[in-house]
Design brief:
Layout (H helix, E strand, L loop, with lengths): L5 E2 L8 E2 L2 H7 L48 H5 L11 H21 L5 H23 L14 H9 L2 H17 L5 H29 L8 H19 L10 H24 L6 H17 L3 H6 L3 H22 L2 H8 L2 E4 L5 E4 L2 H16 L3 H21 L4 E2 L6 E2 L9 H17 L6 H20 L1 H6 L8 E3 L4 E3 H7 L5 H20 L3 H9 L9 H21 L6 H17 L5 H19 L8 H15 L14 H8 L4 H9 L12 H18 L8 H16 L3 H20 L7 H19 L5 H12 L3 H7 L6 H8 L10 H19 L16 H18 L5 H21 L7 H13 L6 H18 L2 H4 L5 H26 L6 H22 L10 H11 L7 H12 L3 H6 L5 H10 L1 H5 L1
Antiparallel strand pairs: 1-2, 3-4, 5-6, 7-8
């Protein structure tokens, strides 16, 4: 006998043995009794275990209800002198030793020859069952249908946490290791063990999920190898059942239903493993072993499910399998790495090394499988889960295709067309039918119908996000078709959103789903594209497409206005969704649709009044915040990466120009100092919303503070009070609003109607406040004030610089140096950026009106002082330890040089000073930061434009020629390095290095145009420049087109004298010159 064949009690008891045949007989129990509790002392009979294998008193464990003696749990624990009684503190150690001994038995079985494997298997199986039973009795609740550990089972809870996480992980892995070892045995025996393992693993993970929050870490630690083995073994067993073809007649239906029940059990176990260890599972391996082998065959309806569907019991079992498979799919697609492995396009490498992107076959199979299930099934619970599953899959596709799909502001388009891999139009019609059918059953209080309604409309929103073009073409299914309401006809979705029922909670969920679906559908309507097409169409009886859509949107706006008018009867969550829908419609309304713009303006007035009602406490803070966001989005004013502002929408412009907006603006201005306002606990979030909304409005509508005398007075008082506040947030709000207003005045000064009132407000209040904010102790406020100084107009600088006084400029220059105490990197960088903008304003023009109505009349002597002060400060700032400060210092120098070149030929600046600046900028070409190098290239181009021209070159010292040569060599080096890297396709460079290399080459090619047009005495240095540029043209098709165009543009403006000096060029270069440079042919 083996070491597990007989166990002795420590005191009193007789020797008892276990019959191996009893195990064989116990494994033949029917699958219908898997979860039935055994008769006896209230303990659970585990699946596949007969009465002889129960661990009773005197055999394997000590019954906790009788304490007649002390018994060992196993001979292994006995050898280690570990008492495994429930009250012994060493009990966890005994369980761990039991796991070790069981593992040793399995390893022994692996090493034994095939003739001795049968005996080793019997010994290990008894040990495995003993371990599982000991864990179950000690740790789990007796009722298997309840939670794994009862709330009052404090001792079990503490004991479970006392067992090391790695020990629990090894206990989970042991059954799967055994299954992989005995895979060649009879299927019935393997099914018995997999059933036992799945029950054990599910209960272990349920217990760990309950303990995870208190333990502070993972309650189970499973190695990557053991985890993958567990997943693979479970998946293989499921796949083997799915592939069985030997059960196809009605007589074997009972056996088939048992197999389906087994699949359900294994799928539950698989779902728990994937959910608990989702961050540890390797995505690529999981896609092959689990997704391709198990989930997809189930969703695609394999042969066994067609047979099982013949009986009602089989239908119910297969339905649960489908639901579990879809739940597993949802859990996986929520993780980015798994979503990429399942849904992202595949990249293949051809024999020539070229990357080829192909569609992911898993993605296509998933979409088609779920599409077929939705189209062919009728059970509401099943359809609800299918819609949710497809929604999650589409969300994963949107994540992996990020950057390729864009639908915003009524200009929906697909930048890189996402292939439609199933019949999308039929699915949209099916969604409409499901929504109508489930909505018609709302009075029956059917939970499945309500769930289906919400999930179906949620699926509509996901489809609109991933496939905007196709969804927009089917807009009439949901927006145009009339649906009989209470007293009038409305669009289908707005009918859903408007109807109320007695069950307010369920009804709110359905209405929110309808409003969200309407928003998603309206977002993809390309009205800006449809309007030009509509002008060329003849009006039909029902109107052209553009007018039809506008009529549908007008109907929706009427519904929105009705809901907002009755906002006190609605829940806050519904009103928030209504406001978001209104903001979406406002964002897509074209200027040509005047009637629709008028309705949108009225709706904005209603939304603004909601914020006004916040003072009286009649609306919630949530609704007020949503109202602020909606108005901010319609006001525009967001700055993109290119420095451009999003436009002020026509409905918002009409509303802001009307007196109806005054109360809203005044309420926002008075909010920081209003002590009577409700929801003071939410003051921080409200203050942030007010700051963002006011900033957007003032940036795009700078006429607002001076629209009326009353508005001007309120604005003046609000700015004064904000600057004196002890609250940092209030002072920052004031500085931010002031900065936005100055920005708007700079860009849209001509739209300010009352110029006298604006000048008075600026000189009396805003300008002094701006420089007061510079002395604030908070860095963010200083940054806002410095940015505002950069937006001051030329006339204001004329006033501050009267009598050649540069005190205001020197105040800003002081912030550019790191010698100033308590000056942060952000403050210094913002100060340098502001200096660059000031140079553009003050140096460029001399009393001539610019395109923004701005002008400056500073004298040449004052401009000379400005250039001297700025140059010396920026030379110092270019040596700053922070890259952002160096970059903005180079930006300021480039703006100064550009402004001087545009001022005229007689520039009041010393050539020696500019040469010193040029040398400092040249040193930055070797900077480690790529952005600094890019700004240095730009600044060198502008400096070369004025430094090496006819007037300045006469006064340059002898070092000027050397500086010209060094700059030319450095810029040519940037071009040649890029051409070399692009030709060799160097794998050592990162994508960011490639990107900046391309930008630097383009900038260098443009900068060389200023050097090549310099004075003739320097043209002897031009040969290397022309050779580098011609090299670019010889690599057209390999390098980026923008770099090639920049090189070609430079070559086309090279003077004829330069070409004559280049007569020693090689023949190949001459041919390229003949091909690419027409000016060379004319010489």
């Amino acid at each position: 006998m083996g070491r597990w064949d007989a166990l002795k009690p420590e005191a009193g008891g007789t020797k008892q043995s276990i019959s191996v045949s009893s195990h064989r007989e116990s494994r033949m129990h029917s699958m219908s009794s898997l979860t039935q509790p055994s008769a006896g002392v209230g303990r659970t009979r585990f699946p596949g275990m007969g009465r002889d294998t129960r661990l009773d008193e005197g055999r394997f464990r000590l019954d906790k209800k009788t304490r007649n003696g002390r018994y060992s749990a196993s001979t292994a624990c006995k050898r280690c002198s570990v008492d495994i009684s429930a009250k012994n503190s060493n009990y966890p150690l005994g369980l761990c030793r039991m796991i070790d001994e069981t593992s040793n038995l399995l390893e022994t079985a692996r090493r034994m020859g095939k003739y001795a494997v049968e005996k080793a298997n019997d010994q290990f199986e008894r040990s495995l069952r003993q371990m599982i039973d000991e864990f179950s009795v000690a740790l789990f609740d007796e009722n298997e249908t309840s939670s794994s550990m009862a709330a009052g089972s404090a001792s079990k809870h503490e004991l479970f946490l006392a067992i090391p996480p790695n020990a629990k992980g090894r206990a989970i892995a042991l059954p799967f290791k055994y299954i992989s070892f005995i895979d060649g045995m009879q299927s019935r025996e393997v099914e018995d063990i997999i059933t036992l393992a799945c029950h054990f693993v599910s209960r272990m993970i349920r217990s760990c999920e309950m303990c995870r929050g208190e333990s502070g870490n993972m309650s189970i630690e499973l190695s990557d190898i053991d985890l993958m083995l567990s997943l693979v073994v479970t998946s293989d067993q499921i796949a083997s059942v799915l592939k069985r073809q030997d059960i196809a007649d009605q007589n074997q239906m009972h056996t088939l239903e048992e197999l389906v029940t087994l699949v359900t059990l294994m799928l539950r176990c698989l779902k728990r493993l994937l959910a608990y260890f989702r961050m540890q599972v390797k995505a690529e391996e999981n896609a092959e072993s689990v997704v391709r082998a198990v989930l997809l065959p189930i969703l695609e309806r394999t042969h066994i499910f067609h047979i099982a569907s013949r009986s009602s019991c089989g239908q119910q079992a297969t339905l649960e399998i489908f639901l579990l498979a879809m739940e597993c799919t949802c859990d996986l697609t929520k993780q980015n790495q798994h979503a990429s492995a399942m849904l992202a396009p595949l990249t293949l490498i051809s024999d020539s090394g070229e990357e080829i992107r192909v569609s992911n076959p898993l993605r296509s199979r998933f979409l088609k499988a779920i599409h077929n299930l939705i189209m062919n099934e009728h059970d509401f619970a099943f359809l609800s889960q299918a819609c949710l599953c497809l929604t999650q899959i589409l969300a994963g596709i949107a994540s992996v295709e990020r950057g390729k799909i864009q639908c915003q502001g009524g200009k929906a388009k697909q930048l890189s067309k996402v292939a439609v891999e199933f019949d999308l139009c039929s699915l949209l019609r099916r969604i409409r039918d499901m929504a109508m059918q489930s909505h018609s059953l709302k009075y029956e209080k059917d939970g499945d119908s309500s769930s289906l309604f919400c999930h179906a409309l949620g699926l509509l929103g996901s489809i609109a996000k991933v496939y905007p073009s196709v969804t927009a073409s089917q807009w009439s299914l949901f927006l145009q078709e009339a649906y009989e309401g209470n007293s009038k006809k409305q669009s289908l979705l707005m009918t859903f959103a408007s109807e109320k029922s007695s069950n307010s909670e369920e009804n709110d969920k359905e209405r929110i789903a309808a409003l969200s679906a309407t928003k998603a559908l309206i977002t993809v309507l390309p009205l800006q594209l449809w309007y030009p097409l509509a002008r060329g169409q003849q009006r039909s009886r029902s109107g052209n497409l553009f007018s039809q859509v506008c009529c549908a949107l007008a109907c929706i706006m009427e519904g929105i206005r009705s809901l907002l008018s009755q906002r006190h009867r609605e829940s806050s969550s519904v009103i928030v969704k209504v406001i978001e829908l209104a903001a979406t419609i406002v964002s897509i309304v074209p200027d040509e649709a005047e009637d629709l713009a008028g309705l949108a303006s009225e709706v904005l007035a209603l939304i603004g009044n909601m914020f006004v009602e916040l003072v009286n406490g009649t609306v919630s803070c949530e609704v007020s915040s949503a109202a602020l966001k909606a108005i901010a989005s319609s006001a525009g004013g967001e700055i993109n990466q290119q420095g451009q502002l999003s436009p002020l929408l026509a409905p918002a412009r009409d509303w802001l120009c009307s007196p109806e907006s005054d109360k809203f603006i005044i309420c926002m201005l008075s909010l920081p100092s209003n002590s009577d306002v409700a929801y003071r606990d939410e003051s921080d979030s409200l203050l942030s919303g007010v700051s963002d909304t006011l900033s957007s409005i003032l940036r795009m509508a700078p006429f607002l503070p001076t629209k009326s005398a009353e508005m001007m007075r309120h604005f003046d008082e609000a700015m004064q009070e904000a600057s004196k506040s002890d609250d940092n947030g209030v002072r920052e709000l004031g500085a931010k609003c002031l900065n936005s207003l100055l920005h708007g005045r700079k860009e849209f000064f001509l739209c300010i109607r009352n110029k006298e009132r604006d000048a008075l407000l600026m000189s009396a209040t805003l300008q002094p406040l701006l420089f007061d904010y510079l002395s604030d102790s908070k860095g963010a406020i200083q940054c806002c004030a410095l940015s505002g100084c950069g937006f001051l107009r030329g006339s204001e600088w004329d006033y501050m610089s009267s009598n050649n006084s540069l005190d205001a400029l020197r105040t800003i220059l002081a912030f550019c140096s790191n010698k100033r105490k308590r000056t942060t990197n952000n403050v210094r960088a913002e100060a340098c950026k502001s200096i660059g903008q000031i140079c553009t304003t003050c140096v460029t023009t001399r009393g001539e009106q610019s395109q923004h109505g701005d002008f400056s009349s500073l004298s040449d002597s004052c401009v000379a002082l400005i250039c001297e002060e700025v140059s010396s400060s920026m030379i110092e700032a270019m040596e700053d330890g922070d890259a952002s400060v160096r970059s903005m210092a180079l930006f300021a120098v480039g703006n100064l040089a550009l402004a001087l070149s545009e001022r005229g030929p007689d520039m009041p600046v010393s050539s020696h000073l500019l040469l010193d600046v040029c040398i400092s900028v040249q040193h930055r070409l070797r900077d480690k930061n790529a952005k600094v190098v890019g700004n240095a290239i730009r600044s060198l181009g502008h400096l070369s434009r004025i430094l090496f021209n006819e007037s300045y070159s006469r006064s340059l010292p002898e070092t000027g020629a050397n500086v010209y040569k060094e700059i030319t060599a450095s810029l040519c080096g940037k071009v040649e390095a890029y051409v070399k890297d692009a030709s060799l396709d160097s794998l050592e460079l990162t994508w960011k290095q490639r990107l900046y290399g391309k930008k630097h080459a383009k900038g260098a090619a443009i900068a060389l145009s200023f050097l090549l047009t310099a004075k003739i005495s320097y043209c002897s240095q031009a040969q290397s420049s022309v050779e580098s540029l011609i090299m670019c043209l010889g690599k057209v098709g390999t390098i980026d087109d923008r770099v090639a165009l920049a090189a070609l543009g430079t070559l086309t403006i090279v003077p004829v004298e330069v070409w004559r000096l280049l007569s020693m060029c090689p023949t190949l270069q001459v041919l390229l010159c003949h091909q690419w440079c027409p000016l060379f042919l004319n010489t």
